[in-house]
Amino acid sequence: MSDLSLTILAETANDAQAIERLHERTFGPGRFVLSAYRLREHVDHLLDLSFTAWIGTLLVGSVRQLPICIGDTKALLLGPLTIEPPFRGRGVGRALLDRALRDAKAGGHRLVLLVGDEAYYSRVGFKAVPKGRATMPGPVDYSRLLVAELVDGAFTNVSGAIRPDWSMAK
Fold first, then answer.
1. What pLDDT digit, counting tens, does each position of 113-138 carry?
2. 64 DSSP 8-state letter
3. Residue 18 and residue 14: Cα distance in Å, rounded?
4. Domain that holds residue 97
5. Each residue's pLDDT tens digit, 51-108
6. Cis check: omega of the bond before 80, within 30 degrees of 0
7. Are the C-beta atoms of 142 and 129 separated by less than 8 Å?
8. 96 near 51, Cβ under 8 Å?
């Protein structure tokens, strides 16, 4: 990242259109059928735990987190993590993840889930959810369902359906 002057900021309502265009460019229309998007239909992401990456005035990345429950246990769902293709492999995603997880932990959150590549996300503490411990709405590749404990042992004895945190519903 030494050749880039990267700034990570909390997302604001004014960032919504630019982030949506970024999602459209990087994920395309197929993103709406993914299980994680089904959860996002019912609850908004948390602006204070969602972040943007900027180089000057150029938005180069975004990560969002929204409140969910796994059974009766409150957690966060991280995603999507989106980086403009020319800026991938340059530390932007890692900077966004580090900030998102640090601020979630500082805010008292204990668990973060996501659907993604374990080889990539394990670098920041994510591990595969043991088979059968959690279920998502719609189709999902359960080998890609990952969890990070922000507090040691926070995922012990947690299981059940993953759903929006209805106390935060739209």
1. 999 999 999 999 999 999 999 998 87
2. E
3. 8
4. 6-168
5. 999 999 999 999 999 999 999 999 999 989 999 999 999 999 999 999 999 999 999 9
6. yes
7. yes
8. yes
In whole angstroms, give the CA distance from residue 160 to residue 70. Answer: 5
Tokens for 74?
């409150």
Q: By three-state DSSP, how is residue 30 classified?
A: helix
Place of tokens 């959810």: 129
Q: What is the CATH number of the domain that holds 27?
A: 3.40.630.30
- State the total domains in the chain: 1
What is d(CA 88, CA 80) in angstroms, rounded to the nearest whole number? 15
What pTM was estimated for this model as a whole?
A: 0.89
Residue 100 tokens read as 């998102």
Amino acid in the structure at residue 75: A
Whether 1 is in a domain gets the answer no
Task: Identify the residue whose tokens are 């519903």.
Answer: 169
- What is the full DSSP assignment across 117-147? -HHHHGGGT-EEPPTTSEE-SS---GGGEEE
